[in-house]
Write a structure and sequence with these properties.
Length: 400
C-alpha cells in the first residue's frame, strides 16, 4: 500500500525538476456551479500534464544498471511525453508504444522529446501487450503508466501543493483512468487532512474503476474525447488505494466534458484536454453533490488535438445558441434571398453559411428553402430573430 512518506520523498526528488503549478480560485466558475472552486493547473507543466511527476520520480530512482538498459512505456500520450522528456533529461534511451488512436499532437511531441515512438494496437491493452513484448525482447525496463508505487507517489505530490496553497479545501475532484493520480492524491490528502473528501471522475464510456470498486456493471464504450482516462482495466495497486481512501466515484457524459472544455477556455482562458476537463464536468453533471463546498479540481492535462478542439468549440457555440441553423421558406423570385439576409442583418445576426435549396424540398415549384447558419448572441437572440422573420411573412423553423 502506498504510504505518505513515499509522496513526501517524491516531492523532495521533484523539487526543481517539475513545475509547481498555480492553484487558483475561479470566481466565475464558482458562480456557475454553486461551489467555491479552486483549480490546479497541471496543464501548465512543460509536457502539459501531471504525468511527468510520476515519470520523473520513477526515472530518478533507477539503478545505474537500469539506466544503461533504457526504458519503455505504453501511453495514449501524456505518460509518454513525461517519460520521454525526463528520459531525455537523464540521458536514457526511451521507447514509447502508443495506440493507433493517439492524437497526432501527442505523437509528434513525444518524438520531439527524443523518444522512439511505436504506433501499435487499437486499444490501450493491445499497446501495453506490445510494449511488454518489446521490453522482453530488447531488455528495456517497462515504466507502467499508473500501477507502480513510484508513479503514484510522484502524482500525489500535486495534492501536497494544493493543500499548501489552499488549506481550506473540503473536497478534491480528480480524473480517473488507471487510478495512479487519484491513488497518490488520496494518500497525500488523507494524511494531511483526514476529513477531506476525495472524489474520482470517470467518463461513462470507460467506467472500469467504478465497475471494479462499486461492483457496478456499466458497459464499456469504444471511444471517448477523454482518451487520457480511456482505460479498460485499472491498476491493481491503484484500485486497492481507491477502495480504502477515495470517498466516491462519479460518472460524466461526453457532453459534460465538452461543455467543461469550452467553459475553461472561455472563462479561465486555459486549454485542457478531455481528461483534464473531467473534474469540472463532474460539477456540471452533479451540482448538488458539491453545492456550497470549497472544491479543488485537478486540470490534469492540456494536450488536445486541434481538430477535435475546433469541433468541440463549434458544438459549444451551438449548445449555447451562439451558432444557430434556421430554414426559411420563400417564393423563388429575384430579391427574396436579399430580403431574408437584410432581415437577418437588421436583427443583429451574422450569416455564417447559406444554402439555397430548390430540388431537395417538399415545397411547391417556384418556392425555395434557404438554410442558414447564423452567428447570434444566444438563445434569446435566436428567438427574437425568428419572430422578426415570421412577422415579415416568412415561414421559418429552427433546425436542431
Amino acid at each position: 500500500m502506498l504510504e505518505f512518506a513515499a509522496i513526501q520523498q517524491a516531492a523532495e526528488r521533484l523539487r526543481g525538476q517539475v513545475l509547481e503549478t498555480p492553484c487558483l480560485e475561479s470566481r466565475t466558475l464558482s458562480r456557475i456551479t454553486g461551489a467555491e472552486l479552486v483549480l490546479k493547473f497541471e496543464n501548465l507543466q512543460f509536457t502539459a500534464s501531471f504525468k511527468e511527476r510520476g515519470a520523473c520520480n520513477k526515472l530518478a530512482q533507477l539503478t545505474p544498471a537500469e539506466r544503461a538498459r533504457g526504458v519503455i512505456a505504453m501511453s495514449a500520450g501524456n505518460h509518454a511525453q513525461g517519460v520521454a522528456y525526463h528520459a531525455q533529461r537523464l540521458g536514457l534511451r526511451a521507447v514509447i508504444v502508443m495506440p493507433r488512436f493517439t492524437p497526432g499532437v501527442k505523437v509528434e511531441r513525444t518524438r520531439g522529446f527524443g523518444a522512439e515512438v511505436v504506433l501499435e494496437g487499437d486499444t490501450l491493452e493491445a499497446a501495453r501487450a506490445h510494449a511488454l513484448a518489446l521490453a522482453e525482447a530488447q531488455g528495456l525496463l517497462f515504466v507502467h503508466p499508473y500501477d507502480d508505487e513510484a508513479i503514484m507517489a510522484g502524482q500525489g505530490t500535486l495534492a501536497l501543493e494544493m493543500l499548501r496553497a489552499q488549506p481550506g479545501l473540503e473536497v478534491l475532484v480528480v480524473p480517473v483512468g488507471g487510478g495512479g493520480l487519484i491513488a497518490g492524491v488520496a494518500t497525500a490528502a488523507k494524511a494531511l487532512q483526514p476529513g477531506i473528501e476525495v472524489i474520482g471522475v470517470q467518463t461513462r464510456r470507460f467506467p472500469a474503476m467504478v465497475n471494479l470498486v462499486q461492483g457496478a456493471r456499466h458497459p464499456q464504450g469504444a471511444s471517448t474525447i477523454a482518451e487520457g482516462i480511456a482505460v479498460g482495466a485499472p491498476g491493481a495497486l491503484c484500485a486497492e488505494v481507491v477502495r480504502q481512501r477515495v470517498d466516491d466515484l462519479l460518472l460524466v457524459d461526453e457532453g459534460d466534458i465538452e461543455q467543461a472544455i469550452v467553459l475553461l477556455l472561455e472563462v479561465e482562458k486555459t486549454l485542457v484536454e478531455g481528461a483534464g476537463a473531467a473534474a469540472l464536468a463532474a460539477l456540471l453533471r452533479h451540482p448538488r453533490r458539491f453545492a456550497g463546498k470549497k472544491v479543488g479540481l485537478v486540470l490534469s492535462g492540456g494536450n488536445i488535438d486541434p481538430q477535435l478542439l475546433a469541433q468541440i468549440i463549434g458544438r459549444g457555440l451551438v449548445r449555447s445558441g451562439r451558432l444557430a441553423r434556421i430554414v426559411v421558406s420563400a417564393r423563388d423570385v429575384p430579391g427574396s434571398l436579399a430580403r431574408i439576409t437584410a432581415l437577418v442583418a437588421e436583427a443583429g445576426a451574422n450569416v455564417d453559411e447559406v444554402h439555397h435549396q430548390r430540388a431537395f424540398t417538399l415545397l411547391a415549384a417556384q418556392n425555395v428553402e434557404v438554410e442558414m447558419v447564423l452567428q447570434t448572441r444566444g438563445h434569446e437572440h435566436v428567438a427574437e430573430l425568428i419572430e422578426r422573420l415570421r412577422a415579415a411573412g416568412l415561414d421559418v423553423r429552427l433546425v436542431h
